[in-house]
Amino acid sequence: MSKDELTGDALVQVLSTLASPHRLRVLAMLAGGRAYVSQLARDLGISRALLQVHLKKLEKAGLVTAHLELSDDGKALKFYQAAPFSLLLTPEVVAASVATLTTDAKD
Predict the structure, then answer these.
(1) In CATH, what number is assigned to the domain containing residue 70?
(2) Which CA distances in Å does 21 have to 3, 56, 61, 70?
(3) Reduced to 3 states, what is the DSSP secondary structure of residue 103?
(4) Are the beta carbons of 37 and 81 closer than 8 angstroms?
(5) Cα(15)–Cα(71) distance, integer angstroms
(6) pLDDT of 81 over the 60 cut
(7) Do the domain assignments include residue 74?
(8) Closest to 40 measured CA to CA, from 50, 51, 31, 32
(9) Cα 64 to the center of its chain, rounded Å
């Protein structure tokens, strides 16, 4: 995610995605390297179903990436890793992003 890609809609999506303590924990776990869903769920102490919901939101916001691999015994393992990103949030960045908003505020 580059400064040029940070439209108002993308900024809203990233900030709302990061507003969840669970998603922050998931992202923090993935900062140490890649992991598969079952291992992440065990490490975080949450269900795989709940983890999948959070991972989908993180992936949609461009904060994590995923890929499937086959284990030695033929099981499909979905691995996630943190996507490289840097977010510099200044009043000027917010002002530039607001000019590109296409969604209505619901607050």
Answers:
(1) 1.10.10.10
(2) 25, 15, 16, 31
(3) coil
(4) no
(5) 35
(6) yes
(7) yes
(8) 51
(9) 5
What is the spatial distance between Cα 23 and Cα 64, in angstroms, rounded to a whole number?
11
Q: What is the pTM of this model?
A: 0.84
pLDDT digits (tens, 9 = 90+) for 21-79: 999 999 999 998 999 999 999 999 999 999 999 999 999 999 999 999 988 898 888 99
- List the strands of the sheet with 64-70, edge to edge: 35-36, 76-82, 64-70
> 85, 86, 83: which is closest to 64 by C-alpha?
83
Please name the residue that has the structure tokens 């999948």. 52
Q: For tokens 């303590």, what's the residue? A: 21
Backbone φ and ψ for 79, nearest 5 degrees, come out as -100, 140
Total domain count for the chain?
1
Class of residue 83 by CB neighbours under 10 A (exposed 0-12, middle 13-18, buried 19+)? middle
